[in-house]
C-alpha cells in the first residue's frame, strides 16, 4: 500500500521532533560549556556564546581529577562489558536451545529482575561485597555492574541465538563438533551484532552509573566520573555551572564515540545468506 503524503509528512515531523528532543540537552550543554561567567549570569541566555572561552574546561580540570576519574570509569565500564558478554553468551545459548520449563522460568525471572529498583538491591550487594572485602574497590564495582547488566544482556542474546538457523549447528555436529566448539566456531560469529549491542549496552550503563559508585566507593582516588561531577555542586546546592557543563560534556564523549564506532556493526545482517531456503 502506498503511504499518503499527509501520513508521510506526519512521520517526518514526529521524527524531527524526536531528534530535537534528543539533541537539545547535548546542544545546550555544549553551549553552556563555552560561555563565560558573565554570559552564564545573563538574564537573556543565547544558544551561541557571544565570546566563546575554554576557561570552563581549564577550571574543571584544575578543580577536580577528571582524568583519573575518567580512567576509573573506563576500567569499570570495559570490565563490566567484557564479563557480561562472556557470561551471557553461553547462558543465552543454553536457554535458547534447551526450551524446557526451567529455561522459560529463567527467562521470566530475567524480565522480572529488570523491575527491581536500585535501593532494593544495594543493601544485599553491600553486605556480600563487605564479606568478600571488595568494598571501595573497582573490582567490586565491576562485579555489581555485571550482576546488574547480566539479566538484560541474557534477554537480548537469547533472541539473537534463536535467530541462528539450527541447521548450521546440526551440520557442525555431523562434522564431529561438540557443543562448545559449535558455540565458539559457528554460533558466536553469527551473533556478532547481538554481542556488540550487548557489550555497548553494558558499557554505556556502567559508564553512566552513579548510585552504586556513590555507595560503594569512598576513596577519592577510586571514584568514577559521574561521582566526581557532583563535586561541582556546592554544599548549598549551587552548581558551578560553567565547569560542570564542561566536565559533563567531556563525560558524554566516550559513549558517543563508542556508539559511532560500532553503529555499523549493530545494523549489519551477518545471518543473510547463511543457509539456502
Describe this structure in words.
This protein has 13 helices and no strands. It has 277 residues and is mostly helical. Helix 4 packs parallel to helix 7 (138-163) and helix 5 packs across helix 7. The longest helix is centred in the N-terminal third of the chain and has 32 residues, at 66-97. The two termini are 27 Å apart.
Calculate the mean pLDDT score and round it: 81
Structural class from helices and strands?
mainly alpha
Helix percentage range: over 70%
Order of helices and strands: HHHHHHHHHHHHH
Shape: globular
Could you name the ranges where pLDDT drops below 50 across 5 or more consecutive residues? 269-277
| Fraction in beta strands | under 5%
Q: Major sheet: size, sense and barrel closure?
A: none
Tell me the radius of gyration.
23 Å
Beginning-to-end CA distance, first to last residue: 27 Å
By DSSP, the count of extended strands is 0
Number of helices, where a helix is a run of at least 4 consecutive DSSP H or I residues: 13
Brief write-up:
The protein has 277 residues and is mostly helical.
Keywords:
277 residues; mainly alpha; 13 helices; disordered C terminus
Secondary structure layout:
Layout (H helix, E strand, L loop, with lengths): L4 H29 L3 H4 L14 H9 L2 H32 L3 H13 L4 H14 L6 H26 L2 H9 L4 H12 L1 H17 L2 H6 L8 H5 L11 H27 L10
Helix pairs in contact: 1-13, 3-13, 4-7, 4-10, 5-7, 7-10, 8-9, 10-13
Amino acid at each position: 500500500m502506498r503511504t499518503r503524503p499527509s501520513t508521510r509528512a506526519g512521520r517526518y515531523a514526529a521524527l524531527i521532533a524526536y531528534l530535537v528532543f534528543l539533541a537539545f540537552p547535548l546542544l545546550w550543554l555544549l553551549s553552556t560549556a563555552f560561555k563565560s561567567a558573565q554570559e552564564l549570569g545573563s538574564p537573556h541566555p543565547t544558544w551561541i556564546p557571544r565570546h566563546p572561552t575554554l576557561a570552563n574546561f581549564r577550571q574543571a580540570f584544575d578543580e577536580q581529577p577528571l582524568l583519573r576519574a575518567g580512567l576509573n570509569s573506563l576500567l569499570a565500564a570495559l570490565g563490566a562489558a567484557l564479563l557480561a558478554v562472556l557470561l551471557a553468551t553461553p547462558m543465552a545459548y543454553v536457554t535458547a536451545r534447551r526450551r524446557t520449563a526451567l529455561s522459560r522460568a529463567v527467562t521470566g525471572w530475567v524480565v522480572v529482575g529488570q523491575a527491581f529498583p536500585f535501593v532494593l538491591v544495594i543493601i544485599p550487594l553491600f553486605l556480600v561485597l563487605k564479606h568478600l572485602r571488595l568494598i571501595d574497590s573497582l573490582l567490586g564495582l565491576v562485579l555489581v555492574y555485571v550482576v546488574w547488566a547480566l539479566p538484560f544482556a541474557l534477554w537480548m542474546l537469547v533472541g539473537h541465538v534463536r535467530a541462528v538457523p539450527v541447521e548450521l549447528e546440526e551440520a557442525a555436529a555431523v562434522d564431529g563438533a561438540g557443543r562448545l566448539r559449535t558455540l565458539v566456531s559457528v554460533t558466536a560469529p553469527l551473533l556478532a551484532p547481538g554481542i556488540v549491542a550487548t557489550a555497548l549496552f553494558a558499557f554505556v550503563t556502567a559508564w553512566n552509573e552513579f548510585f552504586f559508585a556513590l555507595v560503594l566507593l569512598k576513596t577519592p582516588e577510586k571514584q568514577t566520573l559521574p561521582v566526581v561531577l557532583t563535586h561541582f555542586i556546592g554544599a548549598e546546592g549551587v552548581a558551578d555551572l560553567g565547569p560542570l557543563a564542561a566536565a559533563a560534556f567531556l563525560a558524554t564523549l566516550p559513549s558517543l564515540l563508542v556508539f559511532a564506532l560500532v553503529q555499523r556493526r549493530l545494523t549489519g545482517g551477518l545471518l543473510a545468506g547463511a543457509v539456502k531456503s
